[in-house]
Here is the input.
Amino acid sequence: MKKLSFAIVFLAAFAMTAQAQPGQRGERVQEKMEAFKIAFFTEKLQLTPDESKVFWPIYNQFENERDALKDKFDLDNQKLELMSDKDVEAAILQHIEMEEQLVKLRRDYVRRFMEVLPVRKVAMLQRIDTEFKRALLEEIKKRREARQGGRN
Here is the structure.
């Protein structure tokens, strides 16, 4: 567990640096974060080398499709307080449509994952993804607080 915590701190520091210095350094940071994610998931799911070989291409495709779907709807940048009621209603319906498409996408990929992994590992995927994001965000927060000397 200490190995994972160190890796998260290490990568969180690089992530903050990458935001300040885009370009080649940012690409290296992204590669390191991707490598850490692979190690995190592989360890938590206890993937065998054969499972990893077939799992990761499917998982990467899933993430790409999920991200493309979210980008297509791009609901996060809308300022509801500046919109008419009609536009807010359309945004709500658009958000529901996106959620429905995300559920369909997840359903399709769960089936694909169950073709290459034991069902117990498939069931753990969402939890491990959440754990990974939470751990990474927590370490970024700790590093930011330490850099600021604990002041808010």
